[in-house]
Amino acid sequence: MRFKIGYILLLLFISCSEKNNSSDRQQKIENLQAFASVYGYVKYFHPSDGVSEIDWTSFAIYGANLVEKCESKEELINTLNTLFKPIAPSINFSTTKSDKYNLTTITPKNTEGFKPTFWQHSGVGIGMDPQLRTPYQSSRVNGIINKDYSFVVSKLTLKIDPVRYIGRKVKYTAWAKNGDLHSEKGYLRFVLEKLDGTSDLNKEAVVGEQWKQYEIITDIDSYTTSIQVGAALSGKGSILYDLPQLFYENNGNWIEVPLSNQDFETETSFSDYKPEKWHFEGVGYTCSLTNSDSHQGNKSVVLKYTGVIEKERGQQIFENHPKFGELIEKEITKGIYFQVPLVLYSNEGGTYPKSDSGSLLKLKNDLKEVQQEATDLPVRWGNVINTYNVFQHFYPYFDVVDVDWPEELQKALSRSFTDASAKDHLVTLEKFTSPLKDGHINVTYKRNSGWSTPPITWKWIENKLVITNVLDSEIPLVVGDIVTEINGKNTKEYFEEINSRISAGTEGWLNHKAEQLSLLGEKDAELIITVNGQDIKLIRNSYPYSSPTRMADHEKINDSVYYLNLNSIAMEDIEKLIPELAKSKSIICDLRVYPNGNHGFISYLLKENDTVSSWMKIPQSIYPDRKKVSYQNANWMLPSKKPYLGDKQIIFITKGTAMSYAESYMGYIRGYNLGTIIGQPTAGTNGNINLLQLSEGFSIRWTGMKVEKHDGSQLHGIGFLPDIYVNKSIEGVKSGKDEFLEKAIELTEKRITTKPEQNFLD
After folding, report:
1. Alpha helix (H) ranges present in 484-638?
2. pLDDT value at residue 1
3. What are the helix (H) ranges across 567-622?
4. Strand 253-257 vs strand 186-194: parallel, antiparallel, or unpaired?
5. What are the DSSP calls for 133-200, one per residue?
6. Structural element, H or E, at residue 14
7. Phi-psi domain of 208 (left: phi exceeds 0; alpha: psi -120 through 50; beta: other)
8. Cα separations (Å) of 638 from 11, 266, 455, 635?
9. Vertex 624, ends 623 and 626: CA angle to 5°?
10. Where does the Tail specific protease domain start and stop, copy by copy (predicted)?
11. Rounded to whole angstroms, how far apart are CA atoms 168 and 162?
C-alpha cells in the first residue's frame, strides 16, 4: 500500500513539475514576444541618435537574455526601460493605456535651427547585406549618420595563368583564423575568370580563433582565362592568413604549384598589381605582415578593417513622411502598453531629447561582450526576433499569404528552447519562414559549405520518387528506378519533413527544392534508400548536382522551326540569329530555368512599344506593421524592334523552376499575348531579393518588392499558368526523352499543316 501511495505522489510531483515548466516557458515566450515588438518599432521607426549608434544584432541577443528572466509585469517594464531608455529616452511603458503623450518632453524650448527627423524605408536597408546591390535603402532623414565609405570587400589576390591546368581538377588550401577583432565575414577566395568577362567565385568561410586549414576543389575548363587565389574580408573585424598552396590533379595524385612568397616570410608591399605577385585592394582596410602570430614560420598576413567614416545628414528618399506628434502606441503584451514618437527634432548637436550618455555608453560596452555562438539560447532568440521584425514590417506579400505571423514567432521561439546545434537552429529558421511562400527565401549558415550529396538525382514523377541520374557506375541503380523508402521511412513521409523547411509559392518550386534538399547532408554521411525491395547504401561524397535539361544554345529543328535555349544563349548571339529567325515559321523558346540576360529578345515579339509602367513595386514605408504603404513603380519599358517576329508561331516552354527574372520575362509573354505557353506553372516568386544578416553567420535571402502580372493581378504564389500542360512520365525519363520539347515540336507540326490565319489552339 505504501508503494502505491508513493508511486501516486511521484506521478503527482512529475505532473505538477511539467505544468510548472510549461507555464514558466510560456511566460518566457510572452516576455520575448513583447521585447520583439518593441525591438522592431524602435529599430526601424524611432529616429533618435541612439538608434543609429548601437549594434542591433547584439542588442537582440542581449535584450532577449534579460527579458526572459522577468517574472512579473513590473519587472518586465523595468527591464524594458533599462534596455530602451538609453537608446530612446522619449519611450514610455505603463500598465495602463494612456490617452495622451506629453509632446513638450520632445520639443526644444526654441526650435530655431532644428529640423524634423524621421525614418523612410524604400524596401529596407538596415541590417541587410551591403555587398548585395539592390534598389533598397533606409534613411534617417535629417539625422546625423556616420557614413562608412570603406570598400564593401577587401581582397588579397595572387593571379595565376591557368593554361597548364585546363581540363584538370585543382585544389586550393590555406591556413586562416579570425583575428583579435572577431569577424564573421572573412573567407578564402578562389576565382576563375572567364572568356566572356564573367567569373566563378568559390569561397570558404573562416571560422574560429584557432588556426585551421581550409580547402576548395574545382575544375578548370577551357573558358578560364585566369585563376585567383587569396583571402577576403568584408565588414568589421580582422583575419590572419598563412601558407596558401595550389595543387593540380595528375593520375590521382596532387601536384603542388609553387606560389610566390607563399610563407610570407619575405617583406612585400602588396601594392604591385602584377602576375604572380600578391596584390591587395580595399579602401578602409589594411593588409600587412605580422610576426605576432603565424601557422608556420615567423610571419603571416593580417587583413583588418579600419574604416573611412564621415558624418553626414540623412537625405529624404521619397515624398511621404510622418508628422511631428505622430506616435507608435501599442499593447505589447497583455496589460503592458508603450508609446514612442515617429518624429523628433534634430540639429547639429543631434536629436532631442538627448540620451543619458553614461547609460548609452554602458549599453554599448555591454553589447561588445555579447557572445555569439549558435549553441547559446539567447543567440537563437535574437536571430528569431530579428527575422520576425524584418518580415513583420517589410514583407510585401502578407496580403496574399495566409499566415498568422505572430503565431509563427511563438512557434520559432518555442523551438529555440530545444535546439541543440547550429543545424537545429538553421531548421528552426527554415520552418519559421516556410509559411511565407516566398521561393526566394533561402536560409544559409556560413559553416555549411561542406555539405555534399550522393552521386544521384531524383524527381517526383507520376507521384513517385524516380531516379533521374546515376553518376557512379558502381551504384546498383538505373535511371527510372522508383524509390519507396528513405532511411526506413516511406518516401512521402520523409519528404513531409523536408517540405516543412521550404518556402515556396507553387508546388513546382517546392518539389524542385525538396528534391535537392533531401539529398544534402554532411560529407560522407549515409543515405539508405529502398528500390525494388532492396536497401541500397549511398554515401554523400559528391558536390551538389542538378540536372536541368541540357540543350544547345540554339538549334534549327527543321526548315520551318527554330529552337532558342533562353536559359543559356546570350543576347548578342540571338542578335546574330535574327535574320535566320525571320525566315522561320515557328520559334520555340525554352525558359524552364533562368534567362541569360536576353530579355531584349522580347522587343522583336512586340508590335508596339511596351506601355505597362507599374508591374514592379518597391514598398515605401514610414509607419510600422506595413500600414499606409506607398509604392515606387518600376518597369522595363521595352521598345519594339524590327524585324517583327511576333507574327510567327511563338511557343514558350516553362515549368516550376522558372522563377524571378524568368517570370518577369513570362509576364510579357502572357501580358501581351506574345506566344503559347506550354509546360507547368512557373514558381510564383518575383522581385529583387534582399539579404538579412543575422548573428553567427546565419543569413536569409528574401523578396523585398511586390511584383504583379501586367494586368495587376496576383503573381505571388500562383505563377504563370501554361496554355497547354505537359507532364514528365517515368517512361519518358527512362528513354531519355525531353517530353516538353517534343510537345512543342508537335504543336509546330500542327501549325504548319493549318491555314495560316487559323489559331491552332481554337
Report:
1. 491-499, 507-517, 571-583
2. 52
3. 571-583
4. unpaired
5. --S-EEEEET-EEEEE-S-SEEEEEEEE--GGGTTSEEEEEEEEEE-SS--SSEEEEEEEEETTS-EE
6. helix 2-45
7. left
8. 74, 56, 43, 9
9. 90
10. 531-727
11. 10
Q: At what angle do helices 422-433 and 377-394 cross, to 10 degrees?
A: 20
Distance CA 742, CA 205 (A): 44
pLDDT value for 294: 92
56-67 helix and 2-45 helix, angle to the nearest 10 degrees: 150
**CA-to-CA separations, 345 to 398, 459, 623, in angstroms, rounded:** 33, 59, 18
Give the model confidence (pLDDT) of 529-565 as tens digits.
999 999 999 999 876 655 544 578 999 999 999 999 9
DSSP per residue, 240-292: EEEEEEEEEEETTEEEEEP-TTTT--S---S----TTSEEEE-TTEEEEEESS
Which residue type is seen at 613? S
The CA distance from 290 to 308, in Å, is: 23
CA separation for the pair 756, 266 (Å, rounded)? 76
pLDDT tens-digit readout, 604-641: 999 999 999 999 999 999 999 999 999 999 999 999 99
User: How many CA atoms lie within 13 Å of 595's alpha carbon, on the beta-carbon side?
Assistant: 18
Cell numbers that stand for 654 in this block? 516553362
Domains of the chain: 21-110+323-438 (no CATH), 153-305 (2.60.120), 452-539 (2.30.42.10), 554-752 (3.90.226.10)
Alpha-carbon distance values, 448 to 182, 201, 546, 695 (Å): 20, 17, 18, 15
Q: Is the pLDDT of residue 13 over 60?
A: no
Choose among 638, 635, 686: nearest CA to 663.
Answer: 686
Q: CA-CA distance, 393 to 319, in Å (whole number)?
A: 19
758 pLDDT above the threshold of 80: no
* Alpha-carbon gap, residue 742 to 730, rounded angstroms: 15
**C-alpha cell of 357?**
550618455
pTM for this prediction: 0.86
End-to-end CA distance of the chain: 86
In 547-617, where does DSSP find H-type helix?
A: 571-583
Closest CA to 187 of 239, 246, 232: 232
Q: Which pLDDT does position 244 carry in this prediction?
A: 95
Of all helices (H) and strands (E), which one includes residue 215?
strand 212-219
Q: How many CB atoms lie within 10 A of CB 629?
A: 19
Beta-carbon contacts of 747 under 8 Å, excluding residues fewer than 6 positions away, are 649, 651, 676, 678, 724, 760
